[in-house]
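New here. Your pick:
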Amino acid sequence: MTQDNEINVRKAWIIFSVLLALTLLVEFAIKAKTPFESSQWWGFGAVFGFFACAAMVVVAKLLGYLLKRPESYYEDSND
């Protein structure tokens, strides 16, 4: 990675971290009215989103292993 890319990546991490922190702080000021008690816990959306994303990655990896074809799948069998 070049020097410019490293600086931009660092700036992006800082910006996203600040936005995440602000989002979590706003939960103190705004009380959500939801039908489930668990969704009213502080930081529930961040934790739920993290585990949902991790689960999607795991499921995608498993599907990749299940649906994978051999490298010679499209080669002509008459060779």
About this structure: The helical segments are 3-29, 44-67.
